[in-house]
Structure prediction request, 338 residues.
Amino acid sequence: MKHLLSLAVLAGSLATATAQNIDSSQVYFEKGNAELQAKRYLVASQYFNKAISLNPRNTQALIQNGFTYLHISKSFEAKAQFEKALEQEPQNQAIIKELAELYLNYRQFDKAIEFASKCSQCNKDRILGISYYQQEDYGMASKFLAAAIQKEPTDGEATYYLGRTYVEMESYQQAIGIYNKAISLPDAKPLWFYELGLLQYNLEDYKSALASFRTAADKGYTATRDFKENLGFACLYTGEFDYGESVLLSLYADRPGNTDILREIANIFYKNKKYDRALGYCEKLLQINGKDAKAIYQAGMCFQKKGEKDRGQKMCDHAIELDPSLASLRSKKEFVGL
Prediction:
C-alpha cells in the first residue's frame, strides 16, 4: 500500500510541476511579447526560448520566436521555429505563409510550391511563379507571374522574373516590354538595366542598349570585363568611336592574346567606312601573326574600298591561298569580321 501511495504522490507531484511549468512558460511568453513590441529583439528571443524550454508545446511562443528571429535576420533559426510550430498546428495559415516564403528564399522550390499551394494568406502566385521559373518550367512560371503582377503591379521582383521567363522562352520583344516595366518600379536593381541592355544589344538596338548599360553603371552595377566589352562595342556601333575604342583597347591590354577584340573593332570601322582605322587593326593583327589570313583579307578589302583595287585584290588572293575557306567571301564581296 505504501508503494502505491508513493506512486500516487509522485504522479501528483509531476502533474503539479507540469502545471507550474506551463504557467511559467506563459509568463515568459508574455514578457517576450512585451520585448518584441518594444523592438528589443534579442531580449525577446531569450524570453521566448525560456518559455519554450518550460513548455515545448507552447505553439504561440514558437511562432513569436520565429518572427523575432526574422527581425534580426536569423532566417534559418526562424524556419526551425516555424517548422516546430507546424508540427503542432499543421493547418495554421500564419505558419504556412511564413514557411512558403522561407522555403522560396532557401531555394527549396518543391516545398515552396507545396506550401504556397495551400496558403490562403500569402501571394501564392508570386511564390509559385518564381519557384517554377527556378525549376525551368517556364510555361507555369509565366502563368503565375503574370497573375502575381496583375494583383500587385508594383512587385518589381515578380516583374523581373516574368521578363527572365520570356527570355528563356525566346520571346525577346515581350521580354523587353516587361523589363522596361520592371526598371520603372521603385525596387529596380542595376542588374535589370544591364540585362535589358543585353537584350537590346542582341536585337541590334545599340542606341537603347548603350543607354541601358550607362544607367546600370550609374545605379551601381559593377563594371566587369563583360560589361566593359559590351559597353565598348555598343559605343562603336552608335558612333562613339573614340570612347568605345579606348574601352576596348584597355581590355585588350589586360589580355593581349585576345585578337577577337581587334578583329571586331576592325570590322565595325570597316562597316562605318572608316577604312584607315580598320587597316590599323589589320596591321596589329599581322604584327601578332604575319600569316593571319583573315587579317590579310580584311586589309585587302579595305584597300579596295580606298580605291587601291589591284593592291587589295592581290592581298585577298594571297589570303585565300593561305586559307581556301575565305574564297566564299570573294563572290559576296564580304569583309571577314568574326
Notes: The longest helix spans residues 2-37. The radius of gyration is 33 Å. DSSP finds 19 helices and no strands in the chain. The mean pLDDT is 92.
